[in-house]
Amino acid sequence: MTDLTDIEWERLDVDSVTELALLAKNKSQRGNQQPAFIPRVEREGILAPSFAQQRLWFLAQLNEDSTNYHIPLGLRLRGELDRSAWQRSLDHLFARHEALRSIFVASGEDPEVDILPPDTGLPVREHDLRGRPDAEAALSALCREETCTPFDLARGPLIRGRLIRMSEQEHVFLLTQHHIVSDGWSMGVLVRELSALYRAFRAGQENPLPPLAIQYPDYAAWQRQWLAGERLQRQTEYWRSNLSGAPVLLALPTDRPRPAEQSFAGATVPIVIDAQMTRALKQLSQQHGVTLFMTVLAAWSAVLSRLSGQDDIVIGVPTANRGRHEIEELIGFFVNTLAMRIDLSGQPSVAQLLERAKRTALAAQEHQDLPFEQVVEIVQPPRRLDHTPVFQVGLAWNNATEPFDLPGLDVEAAGEELGQVKFDLELNIGEHGELVTGTLGYATALFDQGTIERQRGYLLALLGAMVADAQQPVGHIELLSTDERSYLLEELNRTQAAYPLPQCIHTLFEAQVRRAPDAVAVIHEGASLSYGELNASANRLAHHLIGLGVGPDQPVAICLERSPAMVVGLLAILKAGGAYVPLDPAYPSQRLRQVLADAVPRLLLADAAGCAALGPEGLAGVTVVELDAQAPAWAAQSATDPDPQALGLHAHHLAYIIYTSGSTGMPKGVMIEHHQIVRLFEATQNWYGFTEQDVWCLTHSFSFDFSVWELWGPYATVAGWSFHPVIRSVQPLISTISSARMVSLFSIRHLPHLKH
After folding, report:
1. Would you list the DSSP string of 228-293?
2. What is the CB neighbour count within 10 angstroms for residue 756?
3. Is the CB of residue 339 less than 8 Å from the CB of residue 378?
4. pTM tops 0.85
5. Burial of 205: CB neighbours in 10 Å, binned 0-12, 13-18, 19+
6. Which domains does the chain have, with CATH numbers?
7. Taking the CB of residue 267, how many other CB atoms lie within 10 A of it?
8. How confident is the model at residue 19 (pLDDT cuts 50, 70, 90)?
9. Which of 116, 161, 280, 714 is within CB 3.0–4.6 Å of 748 for a Cys-Cys bond?
10. What pLDDT digit, counting tens, does each position of 130-152 carry?
């Protein structure tokens, strides 16, 4: 089950709270309701975790080996590193912040907080890769090892480092914290203080940092006392009302079905809004009394609405939750997540949507104190393992972070990317100098990179249109690029195709015979027929049937057990111009007689089993050609293909009549013409990527229409297919058509190296 920390970013540097506070300052009276200061609590008694820590501890118990709640930092340090000053700086930082020294011990169903002694020191493992030819590969392995090593919340410490020496003038430092003791704002505090400590210790000076007025355990105790009573009730009612009836899932179109359990594997694509557009967006925001963050929030919600077809959008926005001066310089887990519900109903204009985003953001800011884990418990959304509750898309406003200032060292990012996301989509963006830049993160289990790149284009297109005309309806803004619109409306609709002139099924088979007359076509009980032999046998029988008066559109019944004779009979009927009416001797006799009475064929091809199944009543009034007994009668007929023109046969004549199951009480004959079958195979030829080893099985009764695929699909191959079919028998199986009768199946495979 996913909850609070399942819907937060690992490396937040969120200034959304600053953006919102600028407009919320005069509207909110929260400051007057708070005590003048947060008091310190005694350390001898039991220390309680904050609400956020308690929930994260509970989630960690469900998966003790999880690394989803790690906050990694990787630095490549080039220059003269004072290793002693570096370790001393880390130890002082560790001693300074009780949050970093906190461990969480189970006490009944809830955890208690213990504080490790200040002189414990921040653990740093050292590795020396100097002179190794595989140094970079070894570094990557160490980075992966660090990323995948879980913390023990009950033993700690919940922060650790690795110092990897690459050369005399280059080190890589990896620092990993557990989210339960830190957050994105805390990373900024850590950067500033570690830089100040290192500068001082390297110069032989003392600790330059002023003492902290309070520590994180003081805040946790104050939070539990302050967020109670009427204040708690007011915030509870707001979130219950605000999220009542919100959609459970944002139905974004995905490249793959949503897996049964959410995957946190992810990737990102970069987003850059150039200086000119950034200035225009700032001007638009000022004109409508909103912040740049609110403008991006409005645009992002509009894109999500267009993608999903929903006008009720909930977006998760992390807030630093540092509204009090005392906690601004603390390292700890303060971050909260606000569920911002944007209403896009009624075709709002750009200006109207900006106003809605502003109201939503300010109201959420006024009620930001209630931890999101409690919001989830209040709202009680349906819980599923395949997505996060309340919302599945996030927006983090990340302004530029303060860089490390380490004397004598050039610092750049290093280490392995986590490749993790908490949502389906994560827009991490902010103002950096004259640009607005960031990333669009996505769950790789759901989306391809190309899809996300198109979504990035939609966002940029919508922002540009908002700047151009704030009075236009947001729903009318064109999101597609010229190339994509052309592809969707023109390229995909170019369905013209050159099809061959309509042909009969058996003429396609005859073309195969001419290409490979000696290839094996039928194997049955140790005997085989080549394509040439099968065609010759069918031709002799066809000429015999023509002599008996068979012609175009005339139904000819065929009642045979599965055997090569069945294939010969079907081909012969088609070659003579007739339409075969298949009768499976395994069917009940009454059913077979009903079909004969309805189709009224003048001729019936049968074997002993077929005659027995029909009985004297069924055979009355029809001329029977017994294939197993009368074969000598046509043995002297010509083996050449009958001429369709001489017969007056064309593709719009009937190929077969197959009767339905008779669900209404009476079987009905469905009449199918040759061109309809050929057109079906032409339209679907690209569905199959045949190889020499592919086999088709005639698993259905030839009285069932699916047998058309199994017989004529591979036999009467259309232009463009590379290989051609062979039919052979396989081990007998129990027929599912009638009562436990043994029948032989046919397999159909494609011949190698035969191309049109």
Report:
1. -HHHHHHHHHHHHHHTTT--SS-----SSPPPSS---BEEEEEEEE-HHHHHHHHHHHHHTT--HH
2. 11
3. no
4. no
5. exposed
6. 4-20+40-240+270-401+411-484 (3.30.559.30), 505-751 (3.40.50.12780)
7. 18
8. very low
9. 714
10. 999 999 999 999 999 998 899 99
Distance of CA 321 to the CA centre of its chain: 33
Total residues found in the chain within this entry = 756
CB of 36 closer than 8 Å to CB of 422: no
- How many Cβ atoms are within 10 Å of 532's Cβ, its own excluded? 16
Check the CA dihedral 499-504-507-508 and report its sign: positive
Quick one: which of 124, 117, 176 has its CA closest to 151? Answer: 176
CA 715/CA 592 separation, integer angstroms: 27
Please report where in the chains the tokens 């906690």 appear, as a residue: 327
| 726 phi/psi in degrees, rounded to 5 | -130, 140
Token pair for residue 108? 């009944």
% the chain with pLDDT above 90: 62
How confident is the model over 188-219, as pLDDT tens digits?
999 999 999 999 999 999 999 999 999 999 99
Which amino acid belongs to residue 82? D
Distances, alpha carbon 10 to alpha carbons 40, 107, 241, 545, 605, in Å = 29, 28, 30, 79, 75
User: Cis omega (within 30 of 0) on the bond before 500?
Assistant: no
Count other Cβ atoms within 10 Å, centred on residue 116: 18
